[in-house]
Amino acid sequence: MLRRVLPGLALGFCLVAGPGGVGADPLLRTNPQHLAPPPEGDSATDHPPVVRWPSPPQVVVRAKTGWRQGGTLDKAATAACRAGRFGERTSMLYRAVFDDDVLGVAFGYGLNLYDPDHKADAKTIYLFRFGGLTSCQVLTMPNPDPRVSGAAR
Fold first, then answer.
1. Burial class of residue 18 in the structure, from the number of CB atoms within 10 Å of its CB (0-12 exposed, 13-18 middle, 19+ buried)
2. How far is CA 8 from the centre of its chain?
3. Could you give the residue ranges of the DSSP H alpha helices within the chain?
4. ∠ CA(40), CA(41), CA(43), 5° rounding?
5. CA–CA distance, 77 with 85 (Å, rounded to integer)
6. Among 131, 127, 142, which Cα is nearest to 67's?
7. I need a surface site. Which of 1, 7, 123, 125 has the fewest CB within 10 A?
8. How far is it, in rounded angstroms, from Cα 118 to Cα 66?
9. Would 75 be classed as within a structural domain?
10. pLDDT tens digits, residue range 9-25?
11. Which tens digit of pLDDT belongs to each residue from 36-58?
12. One pLDDT digit (tens) per residue for the chain, 153 residues
């Protein structure tokens, strides 16, 4: 019985696929106007490549302590993070590595920070534990960079 059915299935598949079907060259099936030619000029500077990460993830803070000693818990920022109104733009693009956990980092002056209510302090570094979740916790620490703290005027 199975030998009688299989040749019929193979013939039916060949009739459905046809000459431009599964085995045909994909370039012959594609409309030539579908893929436009590359734009004129230097394509490396005019159109940068599309990549998942604009730059590789960077470790900003490295400490040999626990994450609880990494900063001060900010209750207002934590509540805003849990409500989705404060957080990282790209999760874990900048990282703080502690002995027991890795936290996401955003800077108060706007680097990697989503803050539509403008509540961030420019002289602060924000550390996000469980960033983007409703159990998010935000720790703050002062930014020692003299360009941000105002000492380099």
1. exposed
2. 51
3. 2-17, 26-29, 43-46, 75-82, 146-149
4. 100
5. 9
6. 127
7. 1
8. 30
9. yes
10. 555 555 445 555 555 56
11. 655 565 555 555 555 555 567 78
12. 555 555 555 555 554 455 555 555 655 556 666 656 555 655 555 555 555 555 677 888 889 999 999 899 999 999 999 999 999 998 898 999 999 999 999 999 999 999 999 999 999 999 999 988 999 999 999 988 888 866 544
Alpha-carbon torsion (123, 128, 131, 136), positive or negative: negative
The answer as to whether 33 is a domain residue is no
66 touches 99 (CB < 8 A): yes
Q: Tokens 């994909």 appear where?
A: 26
AA identity, residue 80: A
Number of domains within the chain: 1
Query: Domain range for residue 74?
Result: 58-147
- 38: which 2 tokens? 């590359």
Longest dimension (CA), the chain: 90
**Res 144: pLDDT:** 86
For the question of whether the overall pTM of this predicted structure is more than 0.70, the answer is no
DSSP structure string for 29-42: HS-TTTSPPPPSS-
Q: Is residue 31 part of a domain?
A: no
Q: Is 14 helix (H, G, I), strand (E, B) or coil?
A: helix
In one-letter notation, the amino acid at residue 20 is G
